Amino acid sequence: MKSLSLCHRDLKLENILLDSRLNLKIADFGFACDSSVPRSEYRGTCTYMAPEIKLKRVYDGHQVDVFSVGVILFILAQGHFPFQ
């Protein structure tokens, strides 16, 4: 399978769906972009956003998506957001 080199940049619980066989599906690619280009735009949902985006620094799209997945997993395990 060929990689599309996309990053989502707005992963959150509301964008994770389940089909009838309980397979995960990712929705809402409105902020998706080419991950081969470093970015600095302020995009996403604040409660799931990586620190480098909030600080308006250059960031790697895949790394900020991994951070958002970590926040999602924390919420699923603990029942609340990791940060106030």
Properties at a glance:
2 helices, Transferase(Phosphotransferase), domain 1, alpha+beta, 84 residues, single chain, 12% strand, two-stranded antiparallel sheet, flat
Description:
- With 84 residues, this protein is an alpha+beta fold.
- The protein has helices at residues 51-54, 61-78; strands at residues 6-7, 16-18, 24-26, 33-34.
- It contains two helices and four strands; from the N terminus they run E-E-E-E-H-H.
- The strands form two sheets. Strands 1-4 form a two-stranded antiparallel sheet. Strands 2-3 form a two-stranded antiparallel sheet.
- The longest helix is centred in the C-terminal third of the chain and has 18 residues, at 61-78.
- The model has no long low-confidence stretch (mean pLDDT 91).
Would you summarize the structure shown here?
The chain is of the alpha+beta class and about 80 residues long. It has 2 helices and 4 strands; from the N terminus they run ββββαα. A hairpin with a 5-residue loop joins strand 2 and strand 3.
